[in-house]
Each structure stands twice: as structure tokens, then as C-alpha cells.
Amino acid sequence: MAPFDPAESMADVGEFAVIDALVHGRVQPPWVLIGPGDDAAVLSSSDGRTVVSTDMLVEDRHFRLDWSTPHDIGRKAIAQNAADVEAMGAAATAFVVAFGAPADTPAASALQLSDGMWHEAAAMGAGIVGGDLVSAPQWVISVTVLGDLGGRAPVRRDGARPGDVIAVAGELGRSPAGYALWRNDIRDFEALRRRHLVPAPPYGQGRVAADGGATAMTDVSDGLLADLGHIADASGCRIDVDRASLGADHAAVADAAAAVGGDAWEFVLSGGEDHALVATFPGAPPAGWRVIGRVAAGPPEVLVDGDTWRGNRGWQSF
Amino acid sequence: MAPFDPAESMADVGEFAVIDALVHGRVQPPWVLIGPGDDAAVLSSSDGRTVVSTDMLVEDRHFRLDWSTPHDIGRKAIAQNAADVEAMGAAATAFVVAFGAPADTPAASALQLSDGMWHEAAAMGAGIVGGDLVSAPQWVISVTVLGDLGGRAPVRRDGARPGDVIAVAGELGRSPAGYALWRNDIRDFEALRRRHLVPAPPYGQGRVAADGGATAMTDVSDGLLADLGHIADASGCRIDVDRASLGADHAAVADAAAAVGGDAWEFVLSGGEDHALVATFPGAPPAGWRVIGRVAAGPPEVLVDGDTWRGNRGWQSF
Q1: Which of A148, B7, B15, B258 is deepest in the core (most CB within 10 A)?
Q2: Do residues A23 and A37 lie in contact, with contact meaning Cβ atoms separated by under 8 Å?
Q3: Chain A residue closest to B80 (CA)?
Q4: CA of B133: which chain A residue's CA is closest?
């Protein structure tokens, strides 16, 4: 049962009463020494180190309120931040969240957003330990994730070496396919459209990769080729993606691509926001990972089937 | 020398080139094991615990681009977050920053904002270790601060006990006085107007208070009476503020109050954003702190000179 009448706005309820409702009854994991309600939260880490990353989501730029429910938006904001921590070989342990919204926003929407965030955080056993609630002309959500390496060495982007294989955990192409469906007002392909609203990072596979000897890793947020480009640049080597190994991803979005008049390979190779993990390994990757190419000596560049890719390479914010 | 031509916008330069310029040449403190440039940063803490807090600042709500330079805004965003960590008895060690701005924003403004953040972070020896840069309809800045307790017990809001004294480190009333001057288009009182744009938290005094036996502490962000109300509520006791002890703060803003037709006591008691620290101590406070009242048994409430305060009590976001 929602504690707010659907007609009550943030202004009606007031900042402190909304915060009370957002915090009420949430159960924090054991490493949260102090949770919400004080000037700051306090966490313990298992090895004295903390992984940290932040992302901002802006209404009509990163989500639309006529496509996503507040619950979906909350899940997405947590998922994409958690993926950054996974990509270091760590586990997300806690989040802090700042939420800006117009004063006439229903207070119930803030609670649904928070419920979505807690739903997604529960998938990895993390807590939401603090936040800020402010007035803004449109919805803006800023999430910072903290993570724990559990004694592992962090997996950076600069460790790929010639001879390594490239492998992926999670799925590619679904989020951009879903986005194209939404944009074209096509109401079929429910699963793809859902995936655009709520990505599905392969939680836990970051640690599996680190334990399995990954030499470099990142998550697919800008697009597979763009994100591999970051690894190629940081590692100073050439990366060659084998399209034949991506047949399942291509097949999963081929009908949707046809429906929107798009190119399924563009979705798989250049579409962002799937938040799969891509890593390099000196030998066979661990279970849960599939090989999609090889690292070679040469100038930093990303090839597809040994050739320059002529399509779009990925997303920039401006 | 700025690396951007003043005419170049964020869209002209592009996300990744702007980020490169923001990151270039910054020197991180020794506890930053991995700084910007990967999926996440990695920090070490001295005692295995991490303090974390977050704040969002929205253009025309928390700052105005016709009053503040980007450098001022950067300093303010860092200062108000650092104050939350000080208020736990900790030291701010690192920040992550998300910045949203229109695509036609000069790229040089982003660099000035970042320079201001680094200027303020340098005052406490902290680094800015990561961030996000996105397109937004107006400026939005979200900062998350991480802090280190250095083995101290965190100072919460719920430890005030009858008989404790209340003490303040830092100055009160200046920021609200400056705000009233700006609002009334009065161009005198430069120091007060500056203080509104860039608060001056008493860095280091949070640890001094913790070492000096503080039983409860918070920073003055919503207004002295409102913030003491949080301590009274959490600790379950009555707090009585002695106005005679605040004579210096009153005197510092009296002329400005007269110029705007305002009440200097309102600035001192109810104005927010000064980010002074207020704490309770079972005995005499340490050097740098001045006694401004007493904690007494009784229902949670904040009195002024033994009486209910009839003015405004503080700030809420909605």
C-alpha cells in the first residue's frame, strides 16, 4: 500500500516527509554501518578498498516518462552503475542517489522510483544508503555506486595483450533494438522494448572474469566497438571482432531490425546501453563467457572480420 | 592557458575530448589507487571504512550563472559535500562528479567548473576521481563525496545528552545575508555576497570535534534551528540556543540586514548554506569551537533563549 494519495505532489508532502517514506522499512546489507538519516553513510569494505563510479540520467535524454515507469527508471539507473563496478571485477555494495524533479511530481512517483532502485539493488545484495532530493525543471537522477573488490586486483582497460581472446558475458544488441522499436512506435517485440527500459547486466560475471584471469574489461555502454576501442587505446593493441561468433545476438534482433528498417549488425556492434561485459583473457574464458574475437599486435584499432567497420561506431553525450 | 577556444561549445569539442581536458594534469592523492579513465575509480581507506554522501545542485535553484562563475559553482558543490563528511568526524578524501549542461555550453565553462572543484578539493587534500558528462536542458551538478574516519567513531546526530553544551565551528548568517543582498540587487557587502556563492566550511574541525568528545554533530545546511532540530529529534532532547553567544554573527550581518530590510537574527538562526558545523559536547568544546547553548531534558524541540522561536525555521526543497 502506497503511503501517498496519488493526488499528492512532492510540494504537498514536503522534502522531509518524502525522504521518510523512501527510507522507511528498507533493510540494509551488513556492511552498511550507518545508513540514511545522518549527514553521511558509513560502509565497511572487505579489503580496505572502495570502488566508485557515477552516472547521471536526464529525462528525455536517457529515459522518457511516457515509455518507462518510475520503477523501470530506478532499475535502469542502478543497473547501469552496477555494471561499471562489475567491469572492474568487483561487486556493487551500496548506492547513493540524488533525485531532482518538479514540485508538482506525484510523491508516489518518487516512491516507485525508489522501489525500482531497491528491486535492482536486491539482485546484487546491495543497499541504497543515502541521497538527496531537490526541485528541478525535469527529472534528473544521479547515482553513485560503491563496490568491493573482495581482495581481487581490479581489472582495468589497459591489460589486453596480443594473443588474448575477447569474450562477452551478457547479451548485445537488445537495448538499441528496443530503442528503435519505441522510436518507430512499434508495439511488438515486448521483450526487446522492455530490455531497452531495463538493461540486464550479467551480475557476478565481473568477479568470475577477474578470478578467471581477465586482462582487461569494460561494460558495453557506448557500443561494443566503441567500448572495445577504449580497451584497444588503453592497451595499445589491435582488436578483431569475429561476426560469426555473434550470430545469436544478430538473430535475436534481426526481426526487429527488419520491422524498423534498421541493420541488426548496427544494433549488435554499435548500439549502447546493453551493459554486457566484454573482457580479454590470455586463454579460454570462464563459464558464462563466449569468445567473440582476438587481440593482435598493431596500432590501437577495432576491426570487424579483419576489416574496418564502415557503420556507426557508438554514442557520445554531445 | 585554456585548451579551448572561448567559442567552442561542448557539442563542438565532444564528450570524450572535454573529459580528456578535465582530467589532464590533475594530481591525485596517494589513497587513489585508480583515478579517472576506467569504468570506476578505486580508493583505499585508512581503516577499512568509507563515509559517503551526495548532493545535487540545479541551475536557478541552487546557483545562478549570472551571479556565480563556473569556478565558484565548482567550489560550492565540493564545499557543501565536504561539510557532510566533516559532520561525521571524517575527512573528505575523494569526489565523483556528474555534470549535465546544454550542448551549446562553452567547453571552457566545464573546465572552469572543474578547476573550481579542484581548487576547493585541494583545501582538504582530496581528489576528484571520476565523473559523468551528459547533455541536459540546464546545468545540473551532482557530487558524491567519500571520506575517511581515520579510526574514529563516526559522530552521529543521536548522541546529544542533557547537560551537553552546544558549540559551533565556522560562521553563521553570512550565506543567507549574501543571498538577500544578491536578491535585492545591492552590490555592496562584497564579502557576504561572495560567501553566498562559495561557503567556507571549517575544514578539519569535524575531526577536532570527534577527537574532542563530540556526542552529536551536523553541518548547518538547512538553517541553525532546523539542523539543531534534527539533533534534538534524533537524540530525544531539548536544545536551547543562547542568542547572546551569537552576537558576533549577528553583528557581522546587521548592516546587510538593514540594507535589505531583513532581520539579522533570521539570517543567523534560520538561514542555510553556511555549512558551519554544530556539535554537542559533554564538557568544554575543543579550540576552534564556541559554545552557543545547552542540551536539556525534555521533548525534542529547539528553543531560543528559553522560548519558542516565532520566525522561519529553515529550508525545504519543495
Answers
A1: A148
A2: yes
A3: A39
A4: A317
pLDDT digits (tens, 9 = 90+) for B161-206: 999 999 999 999 999 999 999 999 999 999 999 999 999 999 999 9
Residues in chain A within 8 Å Cβ distance of B82: none
Chain B partners within 8 Å of A137 (Cβ): 58, 137-138
The domain B165-308 is placed in CATH, from the list 3.90.650.10, 1.10.730.10, 3.30.565.10, 3.40.50.300, at: 3.90.650.10
Name the residue among A33, A42, A134 with its Cβ closest to that of B56: A134
Query: In the sheet that B91-101 helps form, which strands lie side by side, from edge to edge?
Result: A32-34, A41-44, B49-58, B140-148, B91-101, B127-135
Question: Among partner residues A16, A48, A55, which is closest to B132 by beta-carbon distance?
Answer: A55
How near does any CA of chain B get to the CA of A190, in Å? 28
Tell if the CB–CB gap between A55 and B14 is shorter than 8 Å. no
Q: For chain B, give the longest Cα–Cα distance.
A: 62
Residues of chain B positioned with their CB less than 8 A from the CB of A134: 56-58, 61-62, 317
Q: Which residues of B182-217 are buried (b: 16+ CB within 10 A; e: fewer)?
A: beeeeeebeebbebbbbbbbbbebbbbbbebbbbbb
Which of A48, A54, A134 lies nearest to residue B144, judging by beta carbons? A54
Tell me the per-residue pLDDT of A212-224, one tens digit each, with 9 for 90 and over: 999 999 999 999 9
Asked whether the predicted pLDDT for residue B2 surpasses 60, the reply is: no
pLDDT(A313) > 80 = no
Cross-chain residue pair B98–A137, CB shorter than 8 Å: no
ipTM computed for the complex: 0.96
What is the per-residue pLDDT for B315?
A: 63
Mean pLDDT, residues B28-35 taken together = 97
Chain B residue numbers with beta carbons less than 8 Å from the beta carbon of A34 are 88, 154, 156
Q: Is the pLDDT of residue A7 over 80?
A: yes
* Domains of chain A, residue spans: 10-148, 165-308
Q: Which CATH class is domain B10-148?
A: alpha beta
Q: With 80 as the cut, is the pLDDT of residue B317 above it? A: no
Check whether A60 is labelled as a binding-site residue.
no
